[in-house]
Amino acid sequence: MKVLACIFDLDGVIVDTARYHYLAWKRLAQELGFYFTEKNNERLKGVSRMTSLNILLETGGIKLPEEDKIQLTDKKNTWYKEYISELSPDDILPGAQKFLDKVRKDNLKIGIGSASKNTHLILKNIGLDKFFDSVVDGNKIHRSKPDPEVFLNVADKLNIPPGNCVVFEDAIAGIQAARNGGMACVGIGSDKILHEADLVVKSLKEMTLEKLYSL
Ligand code: BG6
Ligand code: MG
Fold first, then answer.
1. 24: which of 42, 79, 132, 139 fits an S-S bond (Cβ 3.0–4.6 Å)?
2. What is the pLDDT of residues 20-37, one digit of tens each?
């Protein structure tokens, strides 16, 4: 394929926020009286806040009315925002800034496609709020990954056909979203979990332009 744009997921790809999401959900589960495992947490990666809560409640065997669910997602988000309030450029994941700079130097377009409604706050805290050519986040989309809406939206804003975009994702749902949108995808994390991606690297530290152009 001819690569013209790179679209990055934010949480767990550019910045180390995935662990804070997990901490907050685990704390909520504890309040609800059950232990939420890291394995179950994989299903929450990449999906919206409310979908995450629904999965969490399902694993705990709990059914609640909509009003209660809204309260619980608000509570989780308050804790989560406390955790990320101290984020700084030091929390950019290993190799991410270097790879972003290489991609920029090679004149490719660069976008963010994230389900998070906290995207803007996070980008500001890590000093990357002006870096990307286009940012589409959870405030602008209607359908959660694995629906391709978020990535198609970024590609559209960048004015690049989906077939020329490569998505970088740490979530199974995100990899499926890229594929559903007709984009190539690099998984960031474990190849056991992310085997549906075209290529898996442990972190962006392992990513090179050669690997990108060989997709
Ligand atoms: C995704 C995370 O990026 O954003 C999910 O992988 C999270 O775990 C989702 O639930 C929504 O984030 P937020 O910040 O809007 O609650
Ligand atoms: Mg992610």
1. 79
2. 999 999 999 999 999 999
63: how many CB neighbours lie within 10 A of its CB? 9
- The rounded distance, in Å, linking the Cα atoms of 29 and 23 is 10
pTM for the predicted model, two decimal places = 0.94
- Stated as kind and residue range, the H or E segment containing 201 is strand 199-201
Around ion ligand 2, which residues have CB less than 5 A away? 9, 11-12, 170-171
Of the CA atoms within 13 Å of residue 138, those in its CB half-sphere come to: 20
pLDDT tens digit string along 78-135? 999 999 998 999 999 999 999 999 999 999 999 999 999 999 999 999 999 999 999 9
Atom of ligand 1 nearest to the CA of 118: 14
Strand stretches in 141-215, DSSP E:
165-169, 184-188, 199-201
Q: What is the Cα–Cα distance from 128 to 120, expressed in whole angstroms?
A: 9
Identify the residues whose C-beta falls under 6 Å from ligand 1.
10-11, 21, 44-49, 52, 77, 114-118, 138, 171
**Residue 199 · residue 207 · CB < 8 Å:** no
